[in-house]
Amino acid sequence: MKLRYPDDGSQLDCELDIPDGTRTVVFGPNGAGKSTLLRLLAGTIGDSPLDATYLPQSTYHFRGTAGWNLGLGLSAEQAARARQLADRLGVGHLLDAKAVSGGERQRLALARTLARPEPWVLLDEPLAALDAQDRMKVARVIVDAIGDRGAVIVTHDQEAAAVLGDHMVVLIDGQVHQSGAVHDVFAQPADGAVAAAVGLGNVLDGTVRVTEGPLCSVQADGATIWGVGDHELGETVRVMFGAETVTMYAGTPPSVGSARNSFIGIVTDVRPIGRFYEVILDAGIPIVAMLTPGSLEALGLEEGVPATAVVKATAVRVVPS
Amino acid sequence: MEFLAGLLSDAVRELFGFGDELRRILFLTLVVAGTATVIGVLVGVPLGAWLALTRHRLRNVVDVLVNAGMGIPPVLAGLLILILLWNDGPLGSLELLFTPTAMIGAQALLAIPIAAGITAGAIRGLGPAANEQLLALRLSGTKARFVAGREALPGVIAAVAAAFGRVVSEVGAVLIVGGNIEGETQVLTTAIVQQARQAHFDSALALGMVLLLIVLLVNIALGRLRAM
After folding, report:
1. How far does B42 lie from chain A, in Å, by closest CA?
2. How far apart, in whole angstroms, are the C-alpha atoms of residue B189 and residue A203?
3. Could you read off the pLDDT of B84-99 as tens digits, one per residue?
4. Which CATH class is domain A203-320?
5. Residue B58 is part of a domain; what is its CATH number?
6. Residue A60: which of B129, B138, B153 has the nearest Cβ?
7. Please, is B204 exposed, middle or buried when counting C-beta atoms within 10 Å of its C-beta (0-12, 13-18, 19+)?
8. Residue range B157-168: mean pLDDT, rounded
9. Which residues of B touch A (CB under 8 A)?
10. For residues B214 and B29, is the Cβ–Cβ distance under 8 A?
11. pLDDT at A129 over 60
12. Class of domain A2-199 (CATH, top level)
């Protein structure tokens, strides 16, 4: 699919790979052209190639009750489905309310958008206005309501991308820099710009073995990783943390601090990424760390050297896979 | 100073002595301006909503016409209706010239662009987020215009007030197509012109006070509606 912003070719000029029946996340920094791209797909600028239901970036609440807003543009049958979705999103009790908060507006608009029957679903930052503790719950409802329809979801948030998408397009300055499975893009950014935008490097799939307050421990291949997330025991999850959150030690660390995760292994690769260096440690699982040239030199890290990677559990996000 | 004070007291006396004649003038003024405003709003508000929301290729042309119409001199609107209704004119057979119906037509012509222009401005003023959401709702044209107009209700009420203010206070259009016939097509503004020309300043001033009072009352009423 080729898209071009009609008035200004320089802002957005790209070819998109949006597989039918998958949820494609368009990921990128602010100003990358994500919302423009979604507006083109929705047909609110130009003529859309898709028949789509669309959630704009800033949800607008018309004067009147939440229930009136919820039913706008819907048939009786669709409105009933919208009320069901509103219940599941925790705003079903607000239908008679005239004043609602930003997060509540977002959920109402989501319920209305998802209740429509169009074969494509377009969502612009659907989790943006929500509290951290509700995001995963809302994300599950979204994925469920999209069903087997095709979807394009714009976000600048890694967690939202991982939970909502299975395919991912990285958009930077109106250009597609990378396109592929979400896991692959997070684990292997195609270039420095993608690495800077995506900011992760460490993505692992595993199973929840222990839960403890806000934390859970995930078994992934040969390693156990502690991270933040509310999950059931035995649930299949994805573990993500940024390469920049990893602290490296030469050899083994002198003592154990508050960090829950420490991985002992051998450096297998050191390569420059922009002004920094990416160090890969083989600790049963591959750990990617981002280091400054100064740190790299001070630690004497190079291929074949034993080292330890330490990550605080609070820097590790555990999301449903 | 003495002249002014005398004039004012005479005017107030006139006000209570007008009797049936003033009542007739007042009634016709309210009927003509009121009906013209209603027509202007019924046509102008949906037109304005269409103008604000449409991507039709004719919208720029209509936009220019509405903007020009907002500033059209009343005498020109009157002249246009006069030519249409003239004996040999295209609508001459209706024999409507110098009737209240003709006056309503001429004033409606003035009210429509005002109502349309202010409504369009109010809906555009809702901002890009409202506009994007309206498009995203994929409403039918009529429903979209209704939702937009409902959202911009304070602006639409301002459009009603402006349309009424324009027609009730204009003199050129009603004078040309109505003819200012006493007891038949005389309204407040044309009566003021007549009284002033005959140097009956006290009567003219009294009529002026009534006109001012009408404009004031209508605006207070619409202002209250807006605040609700």
Report:
1. 22
2. 80
3. 999 888 998 999 999 9
4. mainly beta
5. 1.10.3720.10
6. B129
7. buried
8. 96
9. 129-130, 132-133, 135-139, 143, 147, 150-151, 153
10. yes
11. yes
12. alpha beta
